[in-house]
Write a structure and sequence with these properties.
Length: 511
């Protein structure tokens, strides 16, 4: 293909997940020519897609639509204005053959644990308050400070090690601080007591000791009536309607930057082996950093840092059960060490429209693994048999009630927060920012940050503002690190933007 025939866009986007499609939608809305490539041949949305098996719809992990950022919520409603439903949040913990409501209910937890064990948990917490880990580095140290060693071992250790496949002493405290922010034993106990004695229907929000609402424990959320994939299908359709181009079944191969022409050349390969070439002025990448770095020439220390970054992979075994209402929870955390399953989703409780009939249920049994390990390499038939067996062990359904099933594998679902990840990410970030200012990293895997889709979207929204302005107005690396972003109250969007602003200017204001 001659150089003049190579398609050119103002912006080239790698990945059609929440961050990538937020970028493409907002750019094309503002008249910026945009091309997107997506590796999946069928689905957009990345880990936030909605899978379809014989008209049973299910999430890859379950995705609540809840954000303190008004700007993100407004964008959700703009992209999908008619299809949100309000859903109650109900989840429980399964441990030692018993179920615990989450958030905890004081008297239920006391009855399950017993007076002696409950007393020992409180004493353990009080000891940690008197003799805390002064500078917690690991997940274990951080959680023990907040809850005490005894509750850490009961309600955090087993599940967390299932998720990450590593000891809680190897996991960075950053992950705990991000995922359990604002919650400690006093907050849990006060909310548990409130939940136990409040009159039916009375809800005033779940709050930490400082009065802020704890995002971990919200009681309801918005949800697209046929799953989160509706959002990203709509974003893709609107991107195309606004002139954007999306190439499915297309994977990044190489990147090259011409500093003189200030232009990127991108090659990508399709599932059939065809090579496509593109050029662009700017590139937005939501691809895993490890894959991005492999695609072009970077400094050796950058390559080595990317090689050391790790990911946790994930698979869902969706089981079709011949009963309509097995349990009311959206999901149940399985803290029981005798089974491998980590979490069980009930997709009818996410939305009745996820199930095509009134007589069956669809449950998602979630297994955390590493690509290439025994679990990942197991056949679908063996995984379905394991899931049926473990569903019966935890007492949710009999093996005979399961009529069908399928398996969905998700590579690189979770960036691993080990003790050295931050150093490796900073090495890559500083190298790319200095050498390639028109290359923008966004989203969970693009930034190697374990964030939610609203945080991923915010990084994309601010990146669009930077591109349109032609300069770095916002430092997107502060998104999801500044505490006010997580628990920012009614003016969450405004406070979030203040925390990342490089130059005073409102989002959406003309450059």
């Amino acid at each position: 293909m001659a150089a003049a025939e190579i398609p050119h866009s103002d912006v080239f986007v790698i990945g059609a997940g929440p961050a990538g499609l937020t970028s493409s939608y907002l750019l094309t809305k503002r008249g910026v020519s945009t091309t997107v490539i997506e590796a999946d041949p069928v689905y957009v949305g990345g880990i936030s897609r909605t899978a379809n098996y014989k008209d049973f719809l299910f999430d890859i992990g379950g995705h609540r639509f809840f954000s303190k950022s008004k700007e993100v919520v407004d964008l959700w409603k703009e992209i999908l204005p008619q299809d949100f439903i309000e859903r109650p949040r109900l989840s429980r913990i399964y441990y030692d053959g018993k179920y615990y409501s989450y958030p905890l209910k004081a008297f239920e937890a006391l009855g399950n644990l017993g007076v002696i064990e409950s007393g020992l948990c409180v004493l353990s917490f009080m000891y940690k308050q008197a003799f805390p880990n002064e500078k917690p580095v690991t997940f274990h140290e951080w959680v023990a400070n907040q809850f005490g060693e005894r509750l850490f071992s009961i309600f955090f250790k087993t599940y967390t090690e299932k998720v990450w496949g590593m000891s809680c002493d190897e996991i960075s405290a950053d992950w705990a601080a991000q995922r359990i922010k604002g919650l400690d034993l006093w907050s849990a106990m006060s909310n548990a007591l409130r939940n136990s004695i409040a009159p039916k229907g009375v809800k005033d929000g779940t709050k930490a000791h400082d009065g802020e609402v704890i995002k971990t424990l919200i009681e309801s959320f918005q949800y697209p009536r046929r799953g989160p994939g509706m959002m990203w299908d709509a974003a893709a359709a609107k991107t195309r309607a606004q002139g954007g181009i999306i190439h499915m079944d297309t994977v990044l191969d190489t990147l090259a930057y011409d500093a003189t022409a200030k232009r990127w050349t991108i090659t990508a390969k399709t599932g059939t082996g065809q090579t496509k070439t593109f050029t662009a002025d700017s590139v937005i990448s939501s691809a895993p950093i490890t894959e991005l770095v492999k695609s072009f020439a970077v400094a050796p220390n950058c390559t080595e840092a990317a090689r050391k970054l790790r990911y946790r992979d994930f698979l869902t075994v969706a089981l079709i059960v011949e009963k309509p209402d097995l349990f009311p929870d959206n999901w149940i955390y399985i803290h029981e060490p005798s089974v491998t399953v980590g979490r069980i989703q009930n997709f009818r409780s996410w939305s009745p429209e996820m199930i095509p009939n009134a007589t069956q249920s669809c449950l998602g049994l979630e297994y955390f693994c590493f690509e290439g390990d025994g679990l990942w390499e197991s056949s679908d038939a063996d995984l379905i048999a394991l899931a049926k067996k473990e569903l019966a062990i935890v007492g949710l359904a009999d093996v005979a009630d399961v009529k069908d099933g399928c398996v969905v594998r998700q590579k690189k679902a979770y960036p691993v927060y080990d003790d050295s990840y931050k150093t490796h990410v900073e090495t890559i970030r500083s190298e790319l920012a200095e050498t390639y200012p028109t290359l923008h990293l966004v989203g969970r895997n693009g930034m190697h940050k374990y964030n939610n889709q609203d945080h991923a979207m915010m990084t994309a929204m601010l990146t669009v503002e930077n591109i349109v302005a032609g300069k770095q107005v916002f430092d997107i690396w502060n998104v999801n690190e500044d505490a006010e972003y997580h628990e920012a109250g009614n003016s969450g969007a405004e406070q979030a933007l203040k925390s990342v602003r490089m130059i005073p200017r409102k989002v959406g204001q003309a450059a």
